[in-house]
C-alpha cells in the first residue's frame, strides 16, 4: 500500500493578527509544523497550537524561520551558517519547552520559507541546520525539499529525514519550487493539486513548469496553512488520497 504523511504549517498567528485555520486543519493532517516566533507565532499561539495538536493526536514539529516577522520569513537574508545554527537551536528549544510542558514529544523539524529554500540549494546552510537539529536531539526527523541539499545534509550527519513535496506549489526542472514572485508559483485548483500529489506519491513523478517530468520522492506532503484555500485543500486531498489507495500516517510511523 502507498502511504504518506500530510503536514501543514500552523501556529502562524501573532498578537492580534490571526492567520490560518489551525483548529479545523488539524482534523485532516498527520503532522503540524509549528512556528517558533521568528517569522510568525508567539508564546501564547505556540502553547495553544501544541495543545490542539496533542488533543487531535497530530505529530508536532518545530518550524524555525529567519528573524523576519514583517516579511513572514519569506525574504532571503545575508546570514552566516553560524547564525543559522544558533537561531535554529533557539527556536527548536522554544517549541520543545511548550511540547514538554503539555506532556508531548516532538517528532520533527522543518525550516520555513526563505530558510527552507536557501537550505535546499546551499550545503553550508543545510549543514548548519542539520547540525543544529542533531545536536538538540538526534532522534528528531528533518523535513526537507525532496532530493535537496537539506535532505542530503540530514542523512550525512545521521538524522532520519523526510523528503517533502508540495500540493499547492509548482516545480522547476531542477526540482526546486517556482519562486513566489512568479504568477504560476501556486496551484489554486484543489483538483489539480490533488492530482499532482497522487501522481507524485504513486509514480514518483511531477510535471515541471518547463513541461518536463522529473523524479521526486514523497515521504510527506505539505499544505500551506496561511493559504485561503488551505482548509478546502486539506479536506479534499485527504479524501482523494484515501480513495486512491494511499494511507495517510505520520512520518514516525513509516
Note down, in words, how this protein is organized.
By secondary structure, the chain is of the alpha/beta class. It has one domain: TIM Barrel. Helix content is 39%, strand content 19%. The chain has eight helices and ten strands. The chain has helices at 22-25, 43-55, 81-101, 113-121, 123-136, 149-157, 190-203, 230-243, and strands spanning 2-10, 31-35, 59-63, 106-109, 141-145, 160-166, 205-207, 213-215, 220-223, 246-248. The protein has a seven-stranded parallel β-barrel, surrounded by six helices. A two-stranded antiparallel sheet has the order 7-8. α3 packs parallel to α5 (123-136) and α7 (190-203) packs across α8 (230-243). The longest helix has 21 residues, at 81-101. The model has no long low-confidence stretch (mean pLDDT 93).
**Tally of separate domains:** 1
Count of beta strands: 10
- Tell me about the biggest sheet? 7 strands, parallel, barrel
CATH topology: TIM Barrel
Q: Nearest-angstrom radius of gyration?
A: 17 Å
Strand order of the largest sheet: 1-2-3-4-5-6-9
Give start-end ranges of low-pLDDT stretches.
none
Category from helices, strands and their pairing: alpha/beta
Helix percent band: 25-40%
Q: Alpha-carbon distance between the termini?
A: 12 Å
Mean pLDDT: 93
Subunit structure: Forms a complex composed of PxpA, PxpB and PxpC.
Family: Belongs to the LamB/PxpA family.
EC number: 3.5.2.9
Catalytic activity: 5-oxo-L-proline + ATP + 2 H2O = L-glutamate + ADP + phosphate + H(+)
Amino acid at each position: 500500500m502507498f502511504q504518506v504523511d500530510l503536514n501543514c504549517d500552523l501556529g502562524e498567528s501573532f498578537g492580534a493578527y490571526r492567520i490560518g485555520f489551525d483548529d479545523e486543519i488539524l482534523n485532516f493532517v498527520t503532522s503540524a509544523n509549528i512556528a517558533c516566533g521568528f517569522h510568525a507565532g508567539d508564546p501564547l499561539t505556540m502553547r495553544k497550537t501544541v495543545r490542539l495538536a496533542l488533543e487531535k493526536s497530530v505529530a508536532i514539529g518545530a518550524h524555525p524561520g529567519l528573524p523576519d516577522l514583517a516579511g513572514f520569513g519569506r525574504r532571503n537574508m545575508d546570514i552566516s551558517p553560524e547564525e543559522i545554527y544558533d537561531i535554529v537551536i533557539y527556536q527548536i528549544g522554544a517549541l520543545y519547552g511548550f511540547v514538554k510542558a503539555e506532556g508531548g514529544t516532538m517528532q520533527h523539524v522543518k525550516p520555513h520559507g526563505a530558510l527552507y529554500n536557501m537550505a535546499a540549494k546551499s550545503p553550508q546552510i543545510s549543514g548548519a541546520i542539520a547540525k543544529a537539529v542533531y545536536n538538540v536531539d538526534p532522534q528528531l526527523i528533518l523535513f526537507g525539499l525532496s532530493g535537496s541539499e537539506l535532505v542530503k545534509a540530514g542523512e550525512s550527519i545521521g538524522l532520519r529525514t523526510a523528503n517533502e513535496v508540495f500540493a499547492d506549489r509548482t516545480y522547476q526542472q531542477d526540482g526546486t519550487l517556482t519562486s513566489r514572485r512568479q504568477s504560476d508559483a501556486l496551484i489554486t485548483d484543489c483538483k489539480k493539486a490533488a492530482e499532482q500529489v497522487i501522481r507524485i506519491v504513486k509514480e514518483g513523478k511531477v510535471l515541471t513548469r518547463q513541461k518536463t517530468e522529473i523524479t521526486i520522492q514523497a515521504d510527506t506532503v505539505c499544505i500551506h496553512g496561511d493559504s485561503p484555500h488551505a482548509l478546502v485543500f486539506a479536506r479534499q486531498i485527504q479524501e482523494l488520497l484515501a480513495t486512491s489507495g494511499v494511507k495517510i500516517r505520520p512520518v514516525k510511523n513509516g
